Amino acid sequence: MRGAHGDEPERNDEPDRDDRTDRPGAPGGASDAGDAGGAGDAGARGTVAGGGVGGEPGAPRIPLPRASVEDTGRALPDAVPGDPLTLEHHVLTSLLGAWALAACSAEEAAAVEAHIGECEPCADEALRLRDAVALLQRPESLDLDPALRTRVLEGCLERRPPRIPVPEWATPYDAETARLDALLQDIGDAEWHAPVRLRWFEADGAASRRTTVAGVIAHLLTVDGLVAVALGLADPLGDIAAPTSAPAGRTEAYWRASHFPPTRAVRAPWREQSHSIVRTVSFTGDSGGMPVSYGDFELPLHDAMLDRAFECWVHAEDIAEAVDYPYEPPSARHLNRMIDLAARMLPGALAERRRAGLAAPGARPHLVAAGEPGRSLRLEIEGSGGGEWLIPLDSPGALGSADHEVAHVALDGVEFCRLAAGHVPPAEAAAGQVGDREAIRDVLFAAAGLSRM
């Protein structure tokens, strides 16, 4: 018949063509037996019309392609293994570094592994290189970068500025409550009852209180309530009478009034209160000078918000440690604000220690009027959120002065915050110290004394 090759005669030595002629109804079958082209055309027309010559009705004019091996369900033939790669000793030695980095081909890796199983010096070198590779990049936390939320919000607010923006001094609290809420969302019901030990420093000694994850959130709820009350919001204690308005007294009263230990149900009122606080301070303007009472002392609103952000981070770390959850420090900008608050509170804490008889005036006190430079300690904070602060030693009203510097202390930023939280004893604080040892000791103990339950 006339096919794809026109009048070219068929080659009888092609087995595939012969096989096709044996099938009933296939083109080139019975109609190809003769030499007449008309007969072949008739056979083709007969196939299209509904019946091939000697075939079934509806048989295709052109045969379907034969199925591949995969389509038949038959197993693929086994791969023919190649000869193992044979390399000289010095070549295999040069491949050890690439092998440790997993940068070899499969054949090279197999050759190296076979070689180090027989060559002890190369095996030792391979082990050293593999250990070195593990040190090239430390394992990263699975938690999100603390600065990610700030960057995303800044990008969004640049495109569409808020009608009523959150004050800059309130953003650390907003960020830390959001991070803690994300942690709480990830933990299961049973983990809300995981034991947590709250730690702080009191009267130059370590103090602690045992509670649960839910108990920690109840503690944050009641102490954040001090800010809420100052802003005119509802007090989370409600009708519960606290013996004092200090944070510890409010917390103990809330715990005692609970008929059952706090559960994950405490998360909703805590988060709603934090949202209400951020929403309300946005209407106060940029001053933040409204006083917030902590019972035995007061802080202006902008400092109270930093204090609550600091406590939120510290207790979030307590919770994360209890439930084995990765948790990173705050962003550098927020951490710097928290450190600055602690540094500004140190002169007052030093004066309190002297009034309590826990510290004596310096051997050569530099008595000056308020607002004048006095004897000072240089506090150098290294790492994320770091900086330098001159701490007046003899009077809260004095000014720190480099001309009257008597001591210099260097601390890592996160380490200093843990010292101020009462999580690191002053005697064990990893600090570089130069100058008046008594002044250094007083400042470190005063920093730990800033902590509370």
Automatic annotation (TrEMBL):
Organism equals: Streptomyces rochei (Streptomyces parvullus)
- Here the segments flagged for biased composition (Basic and acidic residues) are 1-23
Q: Does the keyword Transcription apply?
A: yes
Could you identify this protein by its name? Zf-HC2 domain-containing protein
Bias class Gly residues marks the residues at 35-57
Mention one GO molecular function. metal ion binding
Provide this UniProt record's keywords sorted from A to Z.
Answer: Transcription, Transcription regulation
Q: Does the keyword Transcription apply?
A: yes
Identify the residues that the record assigns to the Putative zinc-finger domain, covering every copy: 94-123
| One Pfam family linked to the record | MDMPI_N
All copies of the Mycothiol-dependent maleylpyruvate isomerase metal-binding domain together span: 174-320
Q: Where is this region: Disordered?
A: 1-66
